[in-house]
Amino acid sequence: MGGTTQPAGQAEIAVLAAAALESYEFSRRSGDFRLVRRHRSSERAERLVDGLWITVRRGTVTSSSSEWKKLGTDELERHVRRYLLDDPAAEGVGWRTPWDRMRRSMPGRWVFSPLKGGSSKRLARGVAKRSRRAYAEQLSEATGNDLRELKEEVLLGYEHQRERITGIEQRATFFLGAAGLTTSLVLANAGLLLGDDKLGSPWLGLAIAALAVASVCAIAAGVRAMQATMITFVRTPPNAVTTVVNRRGLKGDALLRAYVGALLVAQARAGVIGDWKVRRLASARRWFVAAIVGVVVLTAFVLVDALP
Predict the structure, then answer these.
(1) Rounded to whole angstroms, what are the CA distances from 174 to 113, 171, 185, 282?
(2) Tens of pLDDT along 181-202?
(3) Judging by beta carbons within 10 Å of its beta carbon (0-12, 13-18, 19+), is residue 261 exposed, middle or buried?
(4) How do the domains of the chain map onto residue ranges?
(5) CA distance 170 to 226
């Protein structure tokens, strides 16, 4: 690739995967592509969360479970390249780093759900560059018109992912306003539980429970919608200054392959971010429906109490 003296991206990833498999057994959960490893000399299992390995309970990965697939060298290489992962054999997070440990604990993962595949919010230096080179090498046999057709296909996919993220954020913005309005309605109904005009027994206790549930659900819906709109992640645009400058010594098909490789990395990263935002918006919708149900139930108690 342009006479560079750096190791080839595909070879780098192959070496990392082979070295990791010497010490660990890797499994991936279907659907969310959760990556877990177990040390070959012990039963200790670790899960990759936001680019760091954390210890999980024993028995998380079982060979008999159909949800988990054991990864060989090729599968691990593809996972590392697609999700822009660093060394899969990196040391796990211990209790010496309590902040990282807390953020990646089960409560922390519920509040700030990690990206798919173990991707990190902040990419490690050089990981995207390594994956771009690996993709370019995979396209080494594509030349001429075939390569240009591939470029058009990948460019369409990249633009689709960008539009997908933009659309999700726009819907989440409108959803955030609706969740705020519902929260105001829940708080306004709290006045029915206080003062001389408060509900009578047994509706008062039931209304308090309904108000508590609706309040929690409305707040959770607002938090999820806010996450979909406000939390940002490091992306890898194919036309960033450093990426363009790194392609300065290439010509012809080699230049086009490098560009297509950059597009593939950017599309994969945008797809992972888009999937995360879709899940946050879907979670917000579920919490919002629960808040609406709580408001309806609370209103029903008020109407029943008001009947003569």
Answers:
(1) 22, 5, 17, 14
(2) 776 766 666 666 655 656 667 7
(3) buried
(4) 1-138, 143-308
(5) 11
The ranges of the chain with pLDDT < 70 are 1-8, 58-65, 95-97, 99, 183, 185-200, 203, 302-303, 305-308
In the three-class reduction of DSSP (H, G, I as helix; E, B as strand; rest coil), residue 97 is classed as: coil
DSSP state of 31: T
Place of tokens 């429906």: 289
- Is residue 18 within 8 A of residue 73, CB to CB? The reply is yes
Helix spans in 92-240 (H): 98-103, 106-111, 127-138, 144-189, 203-230
CA 230-234-237 angle, 5° bins? 115
**How many residues are present in the chain?**
308
**Tokens 């990196």, located at residue:** 90
pLDDT in tens, 74-94: 999 999 999 999 999 998 887
The answer to whether 176 touches 227, Cβ cutoff 8 Å, is: no
Tally Cβ neighbours within 10 Å of residue 141: 7
